[in-house]
Structure prediction request, 361 residues.
Amino acid sequence: MRAFNFSPGPAVLPLEVLQQVREELLDWQGGGTSVMEISHRSKAFVEVAAQAEADLRELMSIPRNYKVLFMQGGASAQFALVPMNLTAAHDSVVDYVNTGHWSRKGITEAARYCTVHVAADAGGSYTRVPPQSELQFSGAAAYAHYTPNETIGGVEFAYVPDAGGVPIVADMSSSILSQPVEVAKFGLIYAGAQKNIGPAGLTVLIVRDDLIGRARPDIPHVFDYKAVADDQSMLNTPPTFAWYMAGLVFKWLKRSGGVSAMGERNKVKAQKLYAAIDASALYRNPVARDARSRMNVTFTMVRPDLDAAFLAAAAEAGLLGLKGHRAVGGMRASIYNAMPLEGVERLIAFMGEFERRHERR
Ligand code: PMP
Prediction:
């Protein structure tokens, strides 16, 4: 039996997609091999790659003056590759908004390549998003970076920052495709695939044309956005299986009504779960209401001594991956696109039962 998997990533994938992959695994398109055993240069695979890009473009209404790149190294590699591609030297200034764990990682890495100005620091426990009025951009930056959804803190922006014409760079690893976004507001979007796109191993970038071709001369060739774009992300062997599966997820998204339908479903899922947490005496969510993530719902228990028992009983009930990140503790339910409402409802019912079982008498 399939469990409900609340893992933060690698994460749940749509059942229909997994079934199709199983169906096609041994003999893909009648060719007598699996898709992962054929050349990335073969006509059949090049078509898979191009179709995935076309479907992503359609899903996100990506304007023509943006390139879609399929890279490797995860979002963490982009923490370095963004500054190496978009700035000229160590004294180039870049603006970063710090809202938690992943922003901080991005800042630390960028500081190795350029001069980071922190435009806002949501500081302390990182349970809020600074409003636009608190963002103090340097006015001299090559780009302004933020993390629309902090996967660990469960903190999400409800708006796209405006840096006064400076290109906005967004680490959308844990929120891409979860609701409509206006791509034209961004200079560059990047995301590791392993949450809302497909298996780990693939990193998707959406980059405005004018930001391509500015890389430092000593950047590794395979990480130069221009080289990658010029070669349709086929400079060297890409993670073909992950790319194929991402394509199947994009098709599934299109069949499911696209990102607006998904956005509505995600809103309902998150609202139900937060409502259950707020109504309970045992569970708490520390995040400011206007900054609560729709993708990663964090909660602690007023009795942390019950954490281990909660996780064990949840696993027993087929509810997996609920342990919070080691950096913050507590619990976290990641409810990406592929988590059905039924999974969230089962979790809510389980949480209620667990609470009743442990009521102080
Ligand atoms: N940014 C965010 C927002 C993330 O959630 C993650 C992974 N959980 C990363 C960056 C790092 O991604 P990767 O493991 O693909 O390098």
Notes: The longest strand covers residues 115-121.
